[in-house]
Model the fold of this input.
Amino acid sequence: MKRHPSGKPPPKKRRREFARHLVLFTRAPRLGRVKRRLAASLGAIAALRFHRAAMATALARFGRHPSFRLWLAVTPDDAGGIASAWPRAKGVARLRQGPGDLGRRMGRVVRVLPPGPVVIVGSDIPEARVGDVRDAFRALTRFDAVFGAAGDGGYWLVGFRRVVLPFRPFRNVRWSSAHALQDTLRNLGPCSRVARVATREDVDDERSFRRWREREKRKQP
Done:
């Protein structure tokens, strides 16, 4: 072993570690512009209230966590508005999602973030937990991609290791359909190593909203 002039062995080189990035995808809290399928049944005001409450819960749950850095990816790009309309998000950096469908917007965010594994979750998943996110990042130490499936055939969480970024993982995905997850997996190809985390329900319409409320009631003593 080569020794330092002081007689001590040279220090071992530390393995370079990159930050973990958790991205919360959301829409600006504007009346009539959020949760439109939910608003069709419950009304625009109730839909906006749910959207704000779910986003506030996610920001409080995931913000300033020592295991990862939280980003807020917002659409539309000019979303600003009255500060009181936004839940508190101290220390959380905002990203513009940019134009295009959901796949183009997620792909853009994955490309522009600093080095390190990235996990994206929606802002309408009130039952998502820090443990789910930890499981996702843990999986990305061994797998190329990770998904949290939703009961409707889509997914509420997606993440990539980004050592070698899959080629256009969101190409031609049939969003808001029972085929979204399978379409994305097909894009990754047979050589990609894929992991799964817990299945959760995204609250998009009245039925999913009622199911979520019932589960919440059952948790109460």
Q: What stands out?
A: The radius of gyration is 20 Å. The longest strand covers residues 21-27. Helices lie at 36-42, 44-62, 102-112, 130-139, 180-188, 206-219. Residues 44-62 form the longest helix (19 residues).
